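Lab meeting, item 3. Inverse folding demo.
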């Protein structure tokens, strides 16, 4: 079922529009002034259903991070519409949690206090935090336990390895129980073994909490292991040139990534990106 593009003055409810939880339609985004504009996205349409795990891949500079900024309301499109949970996005989306390649933990705060940071900013948690601190501390500790960091809450970030910091970073992105999780190359800086460990952490977190997820990555194995659907973007100006459904049964064991059928899908995606690069 298609959803009519709403005007900027109407806010359809989630019930009015059932196409997806995150919908970008015919989006154009240009950076800079008229004389030095960079057209980053042109006619980009993407729809991610509630609870779905989507991955976005494409040539370097094709506009993947721009897509993430649009979906979280950090920037507005020049044309087209961006909707999250049935509402047109017109400012930062508070139901989104975000994690990037660099964990950017505050070195003067313990891991637990870093994880709890969004609670000091995002409502309604902010007004509840001082009254319900012990409940929130338990929540942060249970998230740390889920990602394998039980007992590390009182350590400072500089006492953790890169992989441990990225685990804590995922907890910080999830502490306010976001309905939408945006991941921009979160495992890109990690070694191959740690990366595979964190794919499994991410797999289990998503299975347990069922948040809608959009993952930007250059790692096609990561995309195929984690996602229900992989969007392939063209070279800049970016648009979606291929949508690949990933149908491997869940829960997916890490050994799947070494099987022939898995590698066939990875190669298929690689071909699409090679074509996109060649067409640039
Ligand atoms: N703030 C900005 N001002 C001007 N141009 C920008 C800005 N941010 C991004 N761009 C340009 O827009 C295009 C898309 O950038 P974006 O970061 O979205 O691509 P990407 O696909 O995430 O890149 P990569 O794969 O290298 O991380 C690039 O040409 C980039 O130089």
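The presenter then showed the designed sequence:
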């Amino acid at each position: 079922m298609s959803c009519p593009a709403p005007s900027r003055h109407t806010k359809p409810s989630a019930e009015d529009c059932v196409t997806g939880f995150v919908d970008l339609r015919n989006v154009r985004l240009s950076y800079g002034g008229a004389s030095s504009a960079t057209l980053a996205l042109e006619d980009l349409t993407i729809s991610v259903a509630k609870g779905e795990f989507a991955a976005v891949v494409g040539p370097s500079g094709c506009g993947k991070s721009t897509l993430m900024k649009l979906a979280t309301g950090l920037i507005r499109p020049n044309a087209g519409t961006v909707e999250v949970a049935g509402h047109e996005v017109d400012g930062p989306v508070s139901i989104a949690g975000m994690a990037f390649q660099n964990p950017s933990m505050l070195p003067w705060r313990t891991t637990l206090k870093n994880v709890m940071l969004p609670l000091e900013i995002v409502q309604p948690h902010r007004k509840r935090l001082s009254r319900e601190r012990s409940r929130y501390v338990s929540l942060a500790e249970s998230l740390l336990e889920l990602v394998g960091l039980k007992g590390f809450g009182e350590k400072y970030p500089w006492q953790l390895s890169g992989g441990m910091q990225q685990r804590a970073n995922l907890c910080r992105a999830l502490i306010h129980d976001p309905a939408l999780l945006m991941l921009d190359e979160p495992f890109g800086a990690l070694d191959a073994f740690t990366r595979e460990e964190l794919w499994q952490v991410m797999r289990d977190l998503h299975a347990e909490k069922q948040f809608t997820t959009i993952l930007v990555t250059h790692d096609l194995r990561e995309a195929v292991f984690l996602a229900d659907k992989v969007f392939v973007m063209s070279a800049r100006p970016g648009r979606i040139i291929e949508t690949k459904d990933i149908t491997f049964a869940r829960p997916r064991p890490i050994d799947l990534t070494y099987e022939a059928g898995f590698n066939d899908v990875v190669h298929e995606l690689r071909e699409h990106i090679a074509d996109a690069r060649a067409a640039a």
